Amino acid sequence: YLYKRHLSTEAINQSDSKLSTMAKTKKLSKDVRDKIVDLHKAGMGYKTIAKQLGEKVTTVGAIIRKWKKHKRTVNLPRPGAPCKISPRGVAMIMRTVRNQPRTTREDLVNDLKAAGTIVTKKTIDNVVYRWLTLMMFFQVVDVGSTWTALGPKLSCDSRPLVVKAIAELLALLPQLTVKTEEYQKLKEQVVSFLWGYALNKEPEVASCGYKALSEFSEAAHTLLHLPEQVRVPLDRRRSSNVPTTTQQRYVVVINPWSAFELFLTSLVRQEMTQMPRGVYHSALKRGSLRSDQGKTVAGIPGFMLKTYEKSKQPGLKPGLAAGLLLSFDLPVQTDRDGRPINRFLLSRGRSYQQMLATLIHEVNIQPSEWHRALLLPQAWRGFMSRAYHAVLQGRRAELEMQQKQGKESPEELQYKQHCAWLWVRDQLTGVVKSAAKDSPVVQGNSILALSGLAAVLAKYESNMPADTEGGLGVGPEILSTSTWLAMVLDTLLSIVSSSYKPRGQVFPWFLHRSYSGENTASAIARSCAALALSLVVPVLVAWHKDSVPQVIATLRAGLPGSPTADDSQAVQFHSGLALGMLLSCLHQERLSDVSGQKITELLMSSLDTLEACCFDSNLEYNAGCVLGLGLVLGALSGSGQTEHRARVSLTLDKLLEALQGDSSSQGRMLQEVLAYSVAGVGVAAFSGGVVDALKAEEIMSALRSMTEESQQTPGFSLALGLVVHGLSSCGHGKAEDIQPRLLDAWIKILLAEGCPTMQRLAAVNGLVALVGSETGILQVSLPTFGMGLIITFSGAIGLQSNSACLVGHLHLAHMSTSHSRTAVPQDFSYLPEKSVIRSVVDFLTEAGKKGPEFAHPSLVKTALGPLATVGGSYQYPPVNWSAILSPLMRLNFGEVVQHQCIELASNQAQSSQSASLFLGVWLSPPLVHSLSMQTRGHLYDNLSVWMKHVSEDKLQVYVETLGLQQFQQDVRPQRLAICLSLLRGLAQAMALPNPPNTVWAILCTTIEKIFNLFFLVNHTTRNGWCDQEVHLYVGVSKCLSELADTEIDRIVQVTEMEKTGFILAHLTSQGRVPLLGLNDVITAVLRGWSSHKVGWLLLQTFYQCRLAASPNTGVSKRMEWLLELMGLIRNVAYGVTTATDFLLQVFAAAVISWGDHTMPLLLGVRTQWFPWQQGSKPPGLPHALYGDAVLAEQSVSLCLLGLPHSMRQLLAKEPWREHFSHPTDFLSPFCTAALLALKSSTDFKKKAVWTRAYGW
């Protein structure tokens, strides 16, 4: 038996009490029905009757119609209609089944019939199933044996009630987990059975199945549970995209979307619960090397390092250094348990620092090598990323060793651990600084290394978890990240342009400016600085988005043909290439999705300028522009926007026409660059669906013919290898046929010593392009081994040097991934293939590209809903949320999908900068006006979650400007819900500890302006929407309670009695302000303000003060205030009759409220301001604040009647008893005055009465 335990008496009673709820009825009593008819006869309408009695309008209408038709309001008993089962009947069924398990339904029906209760078999089944569920929950019966006995019979019953009961029964199985083989078999059977329910064509049955499956773990579900139409054929299951494709197909064919959304939410929550910390950084460290690539590619770093150390040929050193830059990666030494050894981690970090200094001096930069110029920025970024993480590991290992040795205090070590990532930044910056003041080549490498470090640092910080409250800060001795990154950006712009004026400090290591202001940096340094600007795109997007126009303008000024273009050919080439790389990176970062229309227009106008330079026949050095244009078009091919796709297709035709045109007017370098650009754009366009297979084949044929005609041109071979590899990986049949033949031919040429060196060099370039960026290589050991032989034994130094660089490029292409080139990854491809989150995001990305025609809005809602729901409790791994959500917001997927996108972005804004940027775009006009009121209300409700993570101007516009518009008099009645949302969000945001000063200023200004917008409503509208506005006053009071006392005194001036009176009364009753705050209200009444309703507010406040636990409402504070009030009454008692009456009533109200609990309740005082929830007010109260108007006006005057009783109760308590004389002396003159007022009466003239009155 798997589970068996005796059920206690308490459990049985608990189950009986749960089942007794079946006897409840929703029918109205006969008295209520008769009253409805009477009110209708009196001339009242349906809505008026429903409002007065607190019933639904539809219910009132049904009763009146029944009375008109049948002349009665109650139903007559119908023959054969079963009555509802009573709690006693339910208990009898349970006892009978428990004592006699073989009892049938017929027996139970007969027994109940004999007892006077007529039920059906369906009711019996319902009771029995609920009883069986409780028995399994309390582990009374054995689940395994019960399901074995009942499963075959129950599985044949398709009635919805039975299906629901069975699903609820089986959903308890995960709560009763035991580690036995029988349990595992039972769970497999149950899961398969429930999947049968889930795949049922009946939506009600499928919903029950999905709800039950949501209780099971993700590991319990397999591909065999899916329907046939979404399974992948067996021969394709080894493909890397099988899980994602299968899950996407399944999303398309599901039927009950709401139930499947619940199931999907469960899977996403389980995955996030088990998500390891730092999964993204771990994926970057592991790289993307597939197991089927063997040890050949993985052995490239060791081979390159060994060859570099043994080589004694000066001409080979630069090539080997370039190869090391692309592939250098030291292994991590581990112990027997697989844990890294700290001392080896420290040594590994130092080795990276030494190699950095070496590569800065050894890597050669040739302006004429266009392919090397394309690779150098990526190479330095990749190396600096590996170096940064290696030195960071070494630093943490060093601190751990110091902690074990006990050399420093734990607090100091903790602070150093917290600042380790900044310490590594400064260490690597120092290495770059020590080598910067050397030759132009060394300066160029230093610039690229510094820029690569900035890109790595920006990426590392943007993917760090959100800081928790009370976390460790950074001391003033460490330069902040934003300041350091701004110095890097200013340094690069100062090197590129002599007219640029830095906003702050720059790194003074580069001699880039003379005393006269001229730019003295070398051409290589200026070229490298231009290329390095593309590396700092993550910095521009995250920290300095306002500097994007300046950077683009600087590069556009250096384009060929520009009046401010540099005289150097190399600088003009690199300016065009740098602008293309910059625009490509900005499009990959989806900057246009998180920026305004001006940035989008700037990007497109810059592309127009770049394209004009490419096709201008009068320009001489525009090869860099052609190469840069190819990069931009490749980035636009995957955007999914129609205008971008049309532009890519048109420009590709122009590039292909230029390539096939007259070659006599073109230089060899321009021809190679044209071929490379056509190949790259053609592959990207075919992959993105911009061009068809025939166009792609035309491009491949043109490049093939050019390569065959010029077999000694490396650029043509590189372009042909690129287009064949790209098209074959996209499934192009002709490319797949050509690829193996090209591979064999180029390998033979490479290994043939008799072939010309240039032809062999072209073969090396073709091989690298053919297999280097391939993700599913069949055989890479042969070409890589062949290039290794060339590097080691060939006598051609140039061939050896170029082969070494290309081998390093081969390794970098295999180890890098698409998500490692941007500030944050564009998708979750670094997560495991079985990840549900990865599949859902891939589906949403595809839906955003293809629109509602591909995925129905209900499907998108089903996929996006779980991400938004779980995102409120968990922070997802790094991803570019803007790239995923922006297309869904632009396309016509409906308001629900828009709401889910905003909800997800607001929840992730605290940990994702892309989410905060995306949210900032939709917080300001005009996009904010396209959001539904529900979405805008949700943003106000969750103001405390995202307010710190958007720019101040966006926050001010959305909260202060747009928020105040909701409180205008003409629109407030229709937008009460969104007004309440704003006040709730403000209260939560102002309650947070230590908000930023700018944010706090915006919040304070907003609540002050909202307070000033409120005004007294005319009495003619008091029974209208003013009743609902009371909750707005409460919201304002909660917000004001978070301000300082001085701010409350400044804002809450008694300029309007009802508004200010309630606000001060509510603040005082909560103990936020002292009782002295009521003096302003009382003084205003004494000065002539109307006391209408004020007495009721004060009476309610006095009673609430007694119940509140606050120092301001303690007994001593109340006693001091009451004594002060007595003194005030004594001062104004002579001459002002009206003021004296009001003050006496206030005094009596205070005494009654603080004397005992019974007297205030008799006068109608409530224990809470609003004892009922909003929208459920009792029908007898016409106003939510005052209740009955007559009672509100007379309650304070009635307090005088209860004053003697309450005064005796009050003075009998401590510490009131100590001040017994004060109330006595205070009341004595009033008693005497009352007696003397009777002196004109007949009885008073008697001598005995006169003597008693005057005490004679």
From TrEMBL:
Residues 700-1256 form the Focadhesin C-terminal domain. Gene3D superfamilies: Winged helix-like DNA-binding domain superfamily/Winged helix DNA-binding domain (1.10.10.10). It comes from the Eukaryota. InterPro entries: ARM-type_fold, FOCAD/RST1_DUF3730, Focadhesin/RST1, Focadhesin_C, Homeodomain-like_sf, HTH_SB, WH-like_DNA-bd_sf. Pfam families: DUF3730, Focadhesin, HTH_SB. GO terms for biological process: regulation of post-transcriptional gene silencing. PANTHER family: FOCADHESIN, FOCADHESIN FAMILY MEMBER. Residues 93-213 form the DUF3730 domain. Residues 22-73 form the Sleeping Beauty transposase HTH domain. This is Focadhesin.
